[in-house]
Automatic annotation (TrEMBL):
Lineage: Bacteria, Bacillati, Bacillota, Tissierellia, Tissierellales
Gene3D superfamilies per UniProt: 1.20.1260.10, 2.20.28.10
GO MF annotation terms: metal ion binding; NADH peroxidase activity
SUPFAM superfamilies per UniProt: Ferritin-like, Rubredoxin-like
Stretches assigned to the Ferritin-like diiron domain: 1-143
The UniProt record lists the keyword Lipoprotein: no
Keywords on record: Oxidoreductase, Peroxidase
Protein name as catalogued: Rubrerythrin-2
The EC number(s) this enzyme carries: 1.11.1.1
Length: 181
């Protein structure tokens, strides 16, 4: 794999790994703050970021060895409203800046495995940003997020709050594979 794409993919792996942890912590806080459905959304999204980290790690399968990895990651342990804002900011950074730039480099270098892993990620992150925004609107009005269900596509990281999809709208995985939170 070309060095620049490998660096970018390791950085994205680092960012996704941190998001995975951060959302578990913020999910526990949402539960404590009395927003159980927001907590479920954080836990499902935490696992979605694990899916993305795993895709990136596997795309890097031939890049063996030890590397210093630099990646952006939000910090702060505040109210659930503040934590949701942190989550929205992180998702939007990935959607608007990080992945478009990394995908452009990978396309230039014709790195198919990297392109495919990062396209899955960017499409799912758009959905995450939307759902966290919806959650923040509810929390800022003093209520929990309203959702029929909280479902995760374990193939690409898509999340549904309705369960009305037949298959995953992003990767076409069968709905029977979806995990409920
Ligand atoms: Fe995300
Ligand atoms: Fe999917």
């Amino acid at each position: 794999m070309n060095a620049m794409t490998a660096d970018n993919l390791r950085s994205a792996y680092g960012g996704e790994s941190q998001a995975h942890m951060r959302y578990r912590i913020w999910g526990d806080k949402a539960e404590k703050d009395g927003f159980p459905t927001v907590a479920r959304l954080f836990m499902a999204t935490s696992d979605a970021e694990e899916v993305h980290a795993t895709l990136h790690f596997k795309a890097l399968k031939d890049e063996k060895g030890s590397f210093s990895v630099t990646s952006g990651g939000g910090f702060g342990y505040g109210s659930t409203s503040e934590n949701l804002q942190g989550a929205i900011d992180g998702e939007l950074f990935e959607v608007e800046q990080m992945y478009p730039a990394y995908i452009a480099v990978a396309e230039m270098q014709n790195e198919k495995a990297a392109i495919s892993a990062m396209r899955y990620a960017i499409e799912a992150e758009k959905v995450h940003a939307e759902l966290f925004t919806k959650a923040k609107e509810a929390v800022d009005q003093g209520r929990d997020l309203e959702a029929e269900t909280v479902l995760l596509c374990p193939v690409c990281g898509f999340i549904s709050l309705t369960g009305e999809e037949d298959n995953c709208p992003l990767c076409n995985a069968k709905k029977e594979l979806f995990k409920e939170y």
